[in-house]
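Posting this for the archive.
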Amino acid sequence: MRAIRFGPGGTVDLVDLPKPEPGEGELLVRVRAAGVCRTDLHLLHDVASGERAPLVPGHEIAGTVEKVGPGVARVRTGDAVVVHFELPCGRCRACVQKKTNLCQEGDALGFSLPGGYAEYVKVPEDNVLPAPANLEVEQAAILACSGATAYHTVVTLGGADERDLVVILGAGGVGLSAVQVARARGARVVAVDNREGARDAAKHLGAEAVTSPEDALAAILSKSKDRGADVVVDFVSTAETMELGIAALAPGGRLVEAAVGDEGVLVSPHLLMDKEIALLGAHSSTMADFARAVQLAEARLLVPVVARTGMLAEAAVILRELEEGKIVGRAALKP
């Protein structure tokens, strides 16, 4: 089968690999679309620096079941499915507590196991759900990370609900899904991005206000009558966005950091106590988050934004466009 492999030195190579064979409780999925996530850029940089072994990336996957292995009972050949990439061990304390995204003993498609930048991928039966029939296949694929992470940050961690003011810092692929998830919860949304196209997209998806980072605090205070935001989700996670998030919080507010940032900020215990604010970190998502995102998609309350599609051979070009900020929303590869 054809696949994209991140190779030594940071190459993005189209290669021929053996077609996987499903084992006990596993499925062979013919990939119809695989999302291109900013995390894939971090993986490419890690491979380039030698911090990670070469890999087949791709953790947002939609496709058709090509073959089922022994013991598979729920899924049939020919089913259209979406795939969650986290493969938790099911035995550790995190798994027992249903915080499977924090499992340290499991694997993940596109990280430690071959992912969806390929014609086929092997996955456990427990990791698939029926693909929403009302979405295009590339939109369905994006639910695996963009949709599930948006739900995990806005609802599972942020606790957003009706009448809340939710601020989304960074209206990229996940950020635009987060705008929709917050709106589905009945919350009001302010979206912040330095790109006009991203702000326009967030406005179209239901954000009550959109703003550049420079004007964000004033806009948030204006929309909240100087109270501040109940939930801020930071999909950029620089020192500047974290400072903005903390400054924007209302008493009792929650700031959720959801991106890999290199710099942090100093936070006074007095600030935390005085306003009783919570600073949270988000790591990936659970199968439960994924299922909720799929339900929202089936209700047309969450429609992932896919702005660019291409074939496997275009992976390097699309990754470069993503790194340069040229893609508003998500891109997808269609093997």
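The chain has ten helices and 17 strands. Residues 137-157 form the longest helix (21 residues).
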